[in-house]
From TrEMBL:
The keyword 4Fe-4S does not apply. Pfam families: Bmp. GO terms for cellular component: plasma membrane. PANTHER family: ABC TRANSPORTER SUBSTRATE-BINDING PROTEIN. InterPro entries: ABC-Purine-Binding, Peripla_BP_I, PnrA-like, TAT_signal. It comes from Variovorax guangxiensis. Residues 50-272 form the ABC transporter substrate-binding protein PnrA-like domain. Residues 1-29 form the signal peptide. This is Basic membrane lipoprotein Med (Substrate-binding protein (PBP1-ABC) superfamily).
């Protein structure tokens, strides 16, 4: 028997022995991590869509096996979570804003499963981490663009629910608009739904009829109204300019990849613990960004573009911090 063959046999024997005693990390290193997600809205909804996109990217790289269920009602959320937990999934994601207590109970019942959930509350030891889309920085920058583009000095804003996750982005946007245009006024309304494009569209129409010429599209449907009325829109979370090339000027983008990749890595290493992943939405972690102006590159005034670039540099260097204001924004327009 050759020395090389003896080495191969020895290596196989060692690997088998380690597997037999359950050597830490060996199984996870060899097998793909089993990941599942539970969503209360369809994959196409912008907030959930960014989580889904990041996990599909990890799946495409061969790092994980990924399953997901969309349009889960709050009443069914706990049941679906439990099914995924008992089904051998090692990491479970989702958004539990309406089912906090039930979701945290599931995490307690499955202490060996890692949970990373969109939440307004704090992490829960040992295995329940939370995240949120803290993209107030690009929201501020997109507001600066909006302030420079409005001719009527009136901006309409349509949100889903007046909760911290929405409020902080709206407030940052408003502050950014005031930065470049102190005269601007705002009309603010909430449709009390995460996904109702027709209702958002009607709310936007009402604001446009009262003089708004730039719309903040926190929900789907707002950009459709702006397009039909020949007005402008600012996107949120995703970039829809390709669908609305003459309407959507700029967008504040949320990139969930930094958070997802961190969680996957820690679970594989056996180091996942309860923590707040909110910081990984910040621009310095590449968790958010201002989308390229694209079709509006030559239409946004040069002085506004220069101010936005300077402010972005200040944000990235730490010279300027966008305030996190979770209070409900109010209309200022008469």
């Amino acid at each position: 028997m050759t020395a090389r063959r003896q080495l191969i046999i020895r290596s196989v024997a060692v690997a088998a022995a380690l597997a037999a005693v359950g050597a830490p990390g060996l199984a996870l290193a060899q097998a793909k991590l089993k990941v599942a997600a539970v969503y209360t809205v369809p994959f196409e909804q912008q907030w959930v869509g960014r989580i889904h996109k990041a996990l599909k990217a990890a799946e495409a790289r061969g790092e994980i096996e990924y399953k997901a269920t969309e349009n889960v009602s709050n009443a069914d959320y706990e049941r679906v979570m439990r099914e995924y937990a008992t089904g051998g999934n090692q990491l479970i994601l989702g958004e539990v804003f309406g089912v906090e207590a039930a979701a945290r109970k599931v995490a307690k019942d499955f202490p060996k499963v890692a949970f990373l959930m969109g939440s307004s509350l704090k992490p829960q030891a040992p295995n329940f981490s939370v995240f949120d889309n803290y993209i107030q920085e690009p929201a501020y920058l997109s507001g600066m663009v909006a302030g420079g583009m409005t001719k009527s000095n009136r901006i309409g804003m349509v949100g889903g629910f007046p909760i911290p996750e929405v409020n902080r982005l709206m407030n940052a946007f408003m502050a950014g608009a005031k930065d470049t245009n102190p005269k601007v006024e705002f009309s603010v309304s909430f449709i009390n739904s995460w996904f109702d494009p027709p209702k958002a569209k009607e709310a936007a129409f009402a604001m446009i009829d009262k003089g708004a010429d730039v719309m903040y599209a926190e929900r789907f449907g707002v950009s459709d109204a702006a397009k039909e009325k020949g007005k402008l829109a600012i996107g949120n979370v995703i970039d829809t300019q390709s669908q609305y090339p003459d309407t959507v000027v700029a967008s504040a983008l949320w990139n969930f990849e930094p958070a997802a990749d961190r969680a996957i890595k820690l679970v594989k290493e056996g180091k996942f613990a309860a923590e707040d992943y909110g910081i990984y939405a910040q621009m310095k972690y590449k968790g958010s960004e201002l989308a390229p102006l694209g079709t509006f590159e030559k239409k946004v005034p040069a002085d506004i573009v220069a101010k936005v670039k300077a402010k972005q540099a200040d944000i990235l260097s730490g010279k300027f911090t966008v305030k996190v204001d979770d209070s409900q924004p109010k209309s200022t327009a008469k």
